[in-house]
Amino acid sequence: MEYEVVIGLETHAELATVTKLFCGCSTKFGAEPNTQVCPVCLGMPGVLPVMNKKAFEYALKAAVALSCEINNFTNFDRKSYYYPDLPKNYQISQNYHNLGINGYMDIIVNGSVKKIHIHNVHLEEEAGKLIHSEDSGANYSLVDFNRAGVPLLEIVSSPDMRNVNEVDSYMQTLRKILLYTEISDCKMQEGSLRFEASISLRKKGSDKLGNRVEIKNLNSMKSVIKAIEYEAARQSELLDGGKAIDRETRLWDEVNGKSARMRSKEEAQDYRYFPEPDLLPVLIDEKWLSTIKSSIPELPLEKKQRYIESFKLSDYDAGVLTEEKVLINLFEECVKIMDRPKAFCNWITNDLLREVKDKKLDINDLKIKPKQLASLVEIIEKGTISSTIAKEVFSEMIQTGKEPQKIIEEKGMAQISDEGLIESVVDKVIANNPNVIEDYKKGKKNALAFLVGQVMKETKGKANPKIVNELLSKKIVDIN
Amino acid sequence: MSLKLLEITAHQLKEKLLSREIQATFLTKKLFEWIKEIEPNIQSYISLNEDEALEKAKEIDRKIENGEKIGLLAGVPIAVKDNICTKNIHTTCASKILKNFIPPYDAYVVKRLKEEDAIIIGKTNLDEFAMGSSTENSGYKITRNPWDTERVPGGSSGGSSAAVAAGLAYMALGSDTGGSVRQPAALCGIVGLKPTYGRVSRYGLVAFGSSLDQIGTLTKDVRDAAVLLQVIAGKDSYDSTSVQIPVPDYINGIDASIQGVKIGIPQEYFTNGINTDVLDSVKNALKVYERLGAKIVDISLPHTEYAVAVYYIVANAEASSNLARYDGVKYGYRTNDVRGIIDMYSRTRSEGFGNEVKRRIMLGNYALSSGYYDAYYLKASKVRNLIKNDFDAAFEKVDCIVCPTSPVPAFKIGERANNPLEMYLSDICTIPANLAGIPGISIPCGFSKEGLPIGMQILTRHFEEKKLLQIAYAFERETDFHLKKPVLKGSIA
Ligand SMILES: [Zn+2]
Question: Is the CB of residue B238 less than 8 Å away from at least one CB of chain A?
């Protein structure tokens, strides 16, 4: 039978604040276990949470960027469950008065726009991390509370997606929005951006939703896609066999490419939500909201569209360019300095990304400045260096942050346009290659290219190719 | 040391220290001698802080000697309820589950005591996690009432109250969630003040019912209550629910006239359930007020009858969540021979908590459960608002409300221990102030036929502690109930 797949996503993004949500501890990733903790984030007896205003504003910004309705009254609730990585055995979250509701996000799939509704956006605290001993006989686990209390944004979509292409576009677009608004660094490998999917199937044409299965433990966007494909196939097979789908939560196993039941609906937890008495409700007035609204930058889809229209970039190039905040900043700054969007786009989308990939560089840690890239383009246009040399210069620029001019000088890379100098090399090459000259005379036109190559080799690629060509053509003719 | 020195108030003591009539070191040593002699009969302390107290006393003496600036409570020996965190000093909440817990930080109020040069004598007994009205629910010991050691001191701040009444501390801090400062103060014949919710930071007070908990003072007289409140009141950036309202001078002007003050008498608090000695004492007290020029006005607080029910839903719901953190993972007690995490949780908690605490956790979890939340917690929150509105309406007509603090004087140890419902009614007069968040004070206003102290409760509007203290002080100045002391057998005295 033919089924329609109905997919919703829950996204967790750690907010890019310097300190935690309810205490002054650092949120820096990768510290020694339990070195970024205090009585508050350890849930010691007697402590109280105090809201990090920046975190709240980031969450508000996200809700606005996702076109949510913002209630002027919002409150926090306690979500109760027992787990060793949750210091208080309740998580301060939002349930009864979410920060933002009824929002949406436009995604592009196969060239057309689709609106995905956002059910709610809310703010909560991150849990710690269990560390299981590597020793297989160990009868204990350790807990690292460094992440406990890091501000976490939860974005719950409506079940509006129908295939993995839409899911992929949703994840990419959402990630870009969070990056553009500088709310989260979205590092999936550090767990600062995570997804959970819920999937149900229904007969094509039916408007009744099937039983929903939630999938957890999705560590990358790729595993989200794989897990959804697996789940859709699993459910379709069950339905075809006349079996029912259980409402359950399943864990994705990336290594084996399968999922397994974690708990059934009957085992679903009762979180016993109630309003957090230790925090005051937050009232959002018009003035505050409009300040937040005005701080939202141009969002991914608008930006991409603008690049295509005003800079005449291809859809593909505009897409690549708008992928990362650093690329956008570099590109836009360059264009401000010099009106050569196409050239800058090429340098960034081809050379820069290739260098990053080949040399395994951190894209957020590139040394190149917009001014420097602009002067590189200028130098090339002036003919000071060839495009081959330029690539070499560029490679060094992004790693060292040196001025292109300086690199060219230091390495003596400047193009040789001194005709006398080139002529002497040309003469030498002609003298050393009588056979090639013969060939040329016999009509082998590519013999000229060989001779040009020899001149370039002699001059370490620095001779102005135009002059080399002119001189060679003239000299060979003169030999006759 | 004469008994007189043990009986004087903290502000009188401070004068003697300042005039160098006595030294803090001498006083502190003598006090610990007295504690060693009397404490076995009273059992008010869970732990004593003798070494640090003597260190601090020496420091105060040196400061006074050198004419250095000294704090408001310089040299005053003070006891702290054992559910208020003290850095490097055990804080057990009278629970086995926190037997070995040593906080790495000071509660806001403790920090303030230290800044004002108080001498912390020790940590006092309470009903486990402040859940009770008799201090019988302690995981360690039963505190006795200094007026009759066969009787309870009230609770849950029974240790702090008994210590102050028996001269084992000059003042003490307690906590009041449903009357836990005012009720034991009444039963021990001392002054107990619960400030407005938000007036004193709760940071470092181990949470029981977070929307109700408030740190309060237990003192020998009203002036001492004013001094101690002056020290602990104020906005604290570590407690979002503490309020940014300037703290007035509670001490100067405490003797203001109460001529023309309107005192509301809520009919709902003067009913059959109240002991006749208590009713008579409070009614006599009203005559004193009339003589002082106050006007007595009959009022009604119509939703009073729901207060106890609302309280036990809200407080237990919050408690069930607040106490979830005691799981053996991070601090405190952990069971032995663990077989998996669930086993560790359930055995740690069933071995670590006492019965009353378990009962309340179960009731609280029930009230918050899916399907019951609306009927219990949400409904209770709505009725709580009605109770608040009752007070707002009453304070349109009157300046304060006067009623009994406890329906009965101190009862016998064991008398109510097996009847939780009857025990819960001990707080029937004090609970509404916590639900409304308003300040209340209990002051001595008489004695029962058996010679047990009786307390009178005064309530005012939010943040009107200054007026509350003035009204209380006016009565105290006219009477001598607060000057009577229990007879204690001790060789020093
Ligand atoms: Zn912290």
Answer: yes
